Amino acid sequence: MARLTDKQKKFIDEYLIDLNATQAAIRAGYSQKNAFKIGSELLQKTTVQKHMHKCMKDREKRTEITQDKVLNELAAIGFANIADYLEVKDDAVKVFNTTDIPKEKLRAVVEIKQTKDGISIKIHDKVKALEDIAKHLGMFVDKVEHTGNIGVGTKKLEDFF
């Protein structure tokens, strides 16, 4: 692997904290005035990308936090079903004992508390979890790039149909 400067290594360490290239460049000691440009340029360098990928893999091993673990946690939240926690029968709500609910189902629960009106169960934001899963899977496209020439200027719009 090609050698990196100390500043580039520091940039990578700082970038992995918050994934903000401009702030990472500043914290690594690059000029604040040019930090946006420098951060962007560093992210495009093959040597920086390779080293960053290696650092991310090392961190994954060290922390045992993998993409699969994160996706599984998001899935537990995104696919949570209120029927796993309670039952409505004859206009009465029966809340299940937490010992009777599988641990993987309890991961979606933020809070269980007794209120003056009964027991309250709060589940993590399902929509946010599903959006994060969908983004990871590439289901949502934020912007579309068009390349090439469609011949505008020499033809009329109706010529295309």
From TrEMBL:
One Pfam family it belongs to: Terminase_2
Top-level taxon in the UniProt lineage: Bacteria
InterPro entries: SPP1-like_terminase, Terminase_Gp1_N_sf, Terminase_ssu
Keywords assigned by UniProt, alphabetized: Viral genome packaging, Viral release from host cell
BP term (GO), one: chromosome organization
Name this protein carries in UniProt: Terminase small subunit
Species: Clostridium muellerianum
